[in-house]
């Protein structure tokens, strides 16, 4: 049997180039290797860990599904499904909550960051990493391709699985994280000290995959830069230009030192103008495919129905084994 790759995106905002370069591009590469059984989920139950408008959420779930397909996740090679369509996720999360120390959840940096932005902190936000552990462990996953911000959650998943296996017997496979070295953390265009985030209040923080060409040009033009004029990768002294170089390298598939050479003696304006055109060109095919898929809701519905059925088949076996081991 092939080893399993599992990952997901929460439909909690506008999917951006950070989500693509950090996570989804890896999914497409792993899928092309034909080495794995690929399972990709739209993690809608994670989105509701902060308040959502139901109508907007429904629309975002549809958008994320179409983006997976438009970016090259192929339903013939990968299982694509919506988390809430497979009730085993919520049920296993409850079981895992009973072996997860409170202190481990209190340490999670994403919880601390997100909690700061909320007027009232919901228990679901606190327990989010346990639901993520359930997502991964249900499929006996070997590889979890994510961006760097999710590494701590995958590490916690490993700890939860080990603890459960020690207490109740070998039920779960211990998963490993897969990171894309160069693009594991894309920073905000408005603030290169914080990661690009789809729930950022200021849309100038990110380039959404569905941003129109002129919006992309405008956002790159107004992206924060550093003092000086040199196009040089230097995280400490030039965090903004370093981030733009990372994005350039990610889309142009060029090593950073090569890009630095191209722009030797040239200014920020020329570099930014070229970068914007590269992003516009690279996102164009995906945007065309997205529009095509929008015209075919029946096909998409069928993909999701088949995906949920295939996912449930695996998930129900793991849940049964976990309950059995616990004496339930
Ligand atoms: N800035 C980033 N650079 C590289 N990878 C990133 N990812 C997110 N932001 C960056 C990766 O994208 C995948 C999907 O993210 P998620 O839906 O799990 O949400 P998140 O990690 O909390 O990312 P966002 O975009 O900041 O969403 P919000 O604002 O809703 O929290 C993950 O693999 C993530 O690592």
Structure description:
By secondary structure, the chain is α/β, with parallel strands linked by helices. It folds into two domains: 3-179 and 297-326, 3-Layer(aba) Sandwich (Rossmann fold), CATH 3.40.50; 203-291, Tyrosyl-Transfer RNA Synthetase (Orthogonal Bundle). It has helices at residues 17-32, 44-47, 54-70, 88-97, 102-106, 109-116, 123-137, 151-168, 213-221, 239-252, 256-262, 268-294, 297-326; strands spanning 3-9, 36-42, 78-82, 141-145, 176-178. A five-stranded parallel beta sheet has the order 3-2-1-4-5, with helices on both faces. β4, α8 and β5 (176-178) form a beta-alpha-beta unit. The mean pLDDT is 97. The structure holds adenosine-5'-tetraphosphate (AQP). Adenosine-5'-tetraphosphate is lined by residues 9-10, 12-13, 18-19, 22-23, 146-147, 149-150, 184-186, 195-199.
Averaging pLDDT over every residue, what do you get? 97
Low-confidence blocks of residues: none
How do the helices and strands follow one another from N- to C-terminus?
EHEHHEHHHHEHEHHHHH
Spatial gap, N to C terminus: 29 Å
Q: Per the principal axes of the C-alpha atoms, what is the gross shape? A: globular
Largest sheet: 5 strands, parallel
Class inferred from helices and paired strands: alpha/beta
Cofactors, ions, other ligands: adenosine-5'-tetraphosphate
The strand line-up of the biggest sheet is: 3-2-1-4-5
Any idea what the CATH architecture of the largest domain is?
A: 3-Layer(aba) Sandwich
Give the tally of β-strands.
5
**What percent of the residues sit in helical stretches (DSSP H or I)?**
40-55%
Give the CATH topology of the largest domain.
Rossmann fold
